[in-house]
Design goal:
The complex is a heterodimer of chains A (115) and B (113).
Chain A: E1 5-7, E2 10-13, E3 19-24, E4 31-37, E5 44-50, E6 53-57, E7 65-68, E8 75-79, E9 88-95, E10 105-106, E11 110-114
Parallel strand pairs in A: 2-11
Antiparallel strand pairs in A: 1-3, 3-8, 4-5, 4-9, 5-6, 7-8, 9-10, 9-11
Chain B: E1 4-7, E2 10-14, E3 19-25, E4 30-38, E5 45-51, E6 56-59, E7 62-67, E8 72-77, E9 86-94, E10 101-103, E11 107-112
Parallel strand pairs in B: 2-11
Antiparallel strand pairs in B: 1-3, 3-8, 4-5, 4-9, 6-7, 7-8, 9-10, 9-11
The chains are: A mainly beta (115), B mainly beta (113).
């Protein structure tokens, strides 16, 4: 069964550094998403991406964050100048067109630890 | 303010027993409601998705109900198994902000032998 893959599974970085979290969505999907989940808290929407541009973003997704689809398969989340409070699980998701857009398939997540 | 609340926060049941998880939302206008299962350290996996006109939807041992008038949903799990131990998350989409999904805090279910 096709799945969303995320790398790395765990990323450790120093405060102030930049990180890039990588995702390979399901190949024929058109909609892509990033979410984060701080330990012990609920999942929070960050951003959605369609047709090579951001379609929606939350208040969390400020200038520190950016997303990119550099080629036909990867979807990346860049976090500049990381802060301690950026430590969280980051989930990538993708969905198909039409009614299937409602069904988002999630990756296993990248655990980001900012020291 | 668009919110999704879930109860109970956590639940422990014996293997083989049934249980029902609750979800209340204030999201408006409503588009759809989804239940996800999230194993510890893993991404959420979709169980059911329900639109405004649907009252009940089943997926194996999982049955979700939706009352759009009272803005309540439930997830019923029958004949629980040890592998059902996970967090169950209610997620609601708003029509005006289609991609901005609102996650509930989840119910942590533990099935014990």
């Amino acid at each position: 069964e096709p799945e969303v893959t995320q790398t790395p599974s765990h990323q450790v970085t120093q405060m102030g550094q930049e990180v890039i979290l990588r995702c390979v969505p399901i190949s024929n999907h058109l909609y892509f998403y990033w979410y984060r989940q701080i330990l012990g808290q609920k999942v929070e929407f960050l951003v959605s991406f369609y047709n090579n541009e951001i379609s929606e973003k939350s208040e969390i997704f400020d200038d520190q964050f950016s997303v990119e689809r550099p080629d036909g398969s990867n979807f990346t989340l860049k976090i500049r100048s990381t802060k301690l409070e950026d430590s969280a699980m980051y989930f990538c998701a993708s969905s198909d067109r039409g009614l299937a857009k409602n069904i988002q398939y999630f990756g296993a997540g990248t655990r980001l630890s900012v020291l | 303010k668009n919110q999704v609340e879930q109860s109970p926060q956590s639940l422990i049941i014996l293997e083989g027993k049934n249980c029902t998880l609750q979800c209340n939302y204030t999201v408006s206008p409503f588009s759809n409601l989804r239940w996800y299962k999230q194993d510890t350290g893993r991404g959420p996996v979709s169980l059911t998705i329900m639109t405004f006109s649907e009252n009940t939807k089943s997926n194996g041992r999982y049955t979700a109900t939706l009352d759009a008038d009272t803005k309540q949903s439930s997830l019923h799990i029958t004949a629980s198994q040890l592998s059902d131990s996970a967090s169950y998350i209610c997620v609601v989409n708003s029509k005006t902000s289609y991609d901005k999904v609102i996650f509930g805090p989840g119910t942590s279910l533990s099935v014990i032998p």
